Amino acid sequence: MRLAALGPVTLPLSALKPAAAKCDPATFRIVLDVGHTAQSEGAISARNVAEFTFNLRLARLIEERLKAEGFTETRLLLTEGKARPSLFKRVAAANNLHADLLMSIHHDSVPNKMLEDWEFEGKKSHFSDRFSGYSVFVSRDNPDFKTSLRFAELVAGEMKAQGLHYAEQYSQAIMGRYQHPLLNKDTGVYSNDELIVLRRTAMPAILLEAGSIINRDEEREMDSPERQNLISSSVASAVKEFCEPRWALLGPP
Prior knowledge:
This protein is of the alpha/beta class and 253 residues long. It has helices at residues 51-68, 83-96, 145-161, 196-199, 216-222, 225-243, 245-250; strands at 2-4, 30-34, 75-78, 101-108, 116-120, 123-127, 135-138, 182-184, 189-191, 205-212. Helices cover 34% and strands 19% of the residues. A hairpin with a 4-residue loop joins β8 (182-184) and β9. The radius of gyration is 17 Å and the shape is globular. The model is unreliable at 1-21 and 246-253 (pLDDT under 50).
C-alpha cells in the first residue's frame, strides 16, 4: 500500500446537516480513495480501458482542484493487491490519517447479464448503452451516517446543477442484487450498506460513481477534459459548501 500526497425515502432536514460547526480548509483533511487497484482494475470500459485508469485520473484532478481551493491537507489514497484485501487496507489507511471526510471515486458499469458484444479496434469487447449517469452512495452503517448523507447530498446536488443526470437503474428490480434504496429521487443519492469502504471508515464517507464507462457515448464524455473538469469543480464546490459554518448552524436555505 502507498499513499499519494461503495425506494425513495423522505428525511428530515436535521438529518442532512453536518455535525461540525467550523471547518478550516487549511487543516480539513479529505481522503480521495482511488477505487480498485492496478492488480484488480474494476470494470472494463466499452473500449477496453480499465476503470482504475479512469478513477486515478479523476481523483488526481479532484485532488489538484481541492488543494487549489485551499484544502491543502487533501490526500490521495492508492492501494495495491486483490480486490477484497485492498478494501481493508484502504479503510485502515484512511482511519490512520484521521480524515474528516472520505470520498471513494469510481466509474460505473452494469451487471454482466445486460452486456452486449461488439468489437473496438479489432478487439472483442462489451457495452451497454441502456443506462448512463452518475450516482452517489452512502452506508447507513457508517458511524456518522447523517454527515455522510449531507455530503452526498451536496455532491449530487452540484453534479445536477452542472446539467448532469443520475443513474436511475439502481432503484429498479431489473438490477437484482445490485438494486439499492434511493434516498433522494431528485439528486440520485443511494444507500448501500454492503460497501466496506463506507461501513468501516471512522469518518463520514461517500462513494461516487462518476459516470458509466460501459455506455459507449458516456465513456467518450468521461474521457474528455471538459467532463473531468466539470466533475472536479462540482466536488470542490460541494466541499466548500460543506465547510461553510452556516450549514451547520442554520441548515440549507
